[in-house]
Amino acid sequence: MLASILIIALVLVSFRLKLGLAAQIFIAATRTVIQLWLIGLVLHVLFRQVNLLWISLIAFVMLSAAGREVMMRQQHRFSGWWGFGVGTLAMFVSSFSVTVLALVFIIKQQATPLPEFAIPIIGDLFPQAIAPPWYTPQYAIPLLGMLLGNTMNGIAIGLDRLTHSAWNQRNIIENKLMLGHTWSEAINDLRRESIRSGLIPIINAMAAAGLVSLPGMMTGQLLHGAAPMDAVKYQILIMFLIAGGTGFGVYLAVWAASRHLFDDRQRLRLSRLKIKE
Amino acid sequence: MLLKVEKLTTDIIGPLSFDINDNEILCISGPSGCGKSMLLRCLADLTPHSGTIDFKNKKLSEYSPPVWRKTVSLLPANSEWWHLTVGQHFEKTLLTDFIKSGLKKLGFAESALSWRIDQISSGEKQRFALLRLLQNKPRLLLLDEPTANLDPKATANTEDLIQQYQQSNHCSIIWVSHDQKQIKRVAQRHLQMHSGTFRPAAL
Questions:
Q1: What is the distance between the alpha carbons of residues A207 and A141, in angstroms, rounded to a whole number?
Q2: Which of B2, B27, B50, B118 is close enough to B183 for a disulfide, judged by CB 3.0 to 4.6 Å?
Q3: Contact state of A267 with B76 under an 8 Å Cβ cutoff
Q4: Is B76 in Cβ contact with A175 (below 8 Å)?
Q5: Which alpha helices (DSSP H) does chain B contain, by range?
Q6: What is the pTM of this model?
Q7: B3-77+136-200 carries CATH number 3.40.50.300
Q8: What pLDDT band is residue A3 in, cutting at 50, 70 and 90?
Q9: Whole-complex ipTM
């Protein structure tokens, strides 16, 4: 509650300096409170029931929200389903697969939960076999959230860069086509730059981790009294998962989008973009 | 017959039906915005269109797009350059006598290949772009006002180079030009374009 005084002070300052941000700061802060409070409620309920269906539903809602965010952040996005689909599909493939891999192989939960009747028999002999199932929401939801959040950033930047530079450099791309380059050769430079710019935030975060700032998750754990080495271990795990998820997600999204800029006769089809001034 | 076009149509041009013979130079003229460049873009398969385009009795769709564009090659009115120097746009392995003699015919020394792109004029770009395109040894050249930025001497050099290339490689050319005298000098046939359709014109 004390921290909210800071926000009120910030609003007052922006009002005095005529930054025109007072309303925006106020709305954003209010959204933070309401959204986090609501998700707290949802998690409170969700953590009590380990049900794959419910967790899938929540994961789907998170994915759609991230997909929409990717779409809205692009200046020239694809029209129709592609505008939403390309980022969302890439996030789905990369974030979900990395999350599931991490849950099963690194946090070492059960890939296939034992049937109820078997637990007393096998549990005595192999105590590890009755570990909670991989989709235990306490682990699955925060992990997925962290991956989606970061992958979303990378993909949004990568796609925006790709469509933007394809629009600006359309004449170069077409001149390359005229000289007999394939679609892939003609857009290769832009694709590489787009993937690079999508990956720069996570590379910077990894490079600066611990030196400039303590990453958010680790800070939270430390504030909660966790042993520093434990917090570090998990933070490294999370960083690597995020880097992997973001990397493959950005690559996938940029590749698919670059292909969709051309038709089956390898003609540059910028009419597939909604161009904004 | 080298190229056969039937009912070629887009939202701006057509329906256009015509053909090009072996070793023929066809000039097309017409007011700005009448669809000349659009026609050339369709022939290079850069713009969606309806109708059929056959090259050597094979349909456009039977060629892979890069092969088609290396065979039926478009020289656009404005060329684009993406590397630092002129020479980087030419295939090193192809830096043959053809390029060297081409540079000479266009009035450049061989050192011109080391010139920086941001320091050359539009007329120089236009001539380098022609040479860059001819490396692919196209069988049908689509030229969109290839001498528009050139002075009379450079124009004469460029026309010579194009005609020599045409004779030694037995290629055909569709040549868009506004210059009646130029058309008289180079064309075997002349069509005038008017709001997307052809009418025959005098040489």
A1: 26
A2: B27
A3: no
A4: yes
A5: 36-43, 65-71, 97-105, 122-134, 152-169, 180-186
A6: 0.86
A7: yes
A8: confident
A9: 0.95
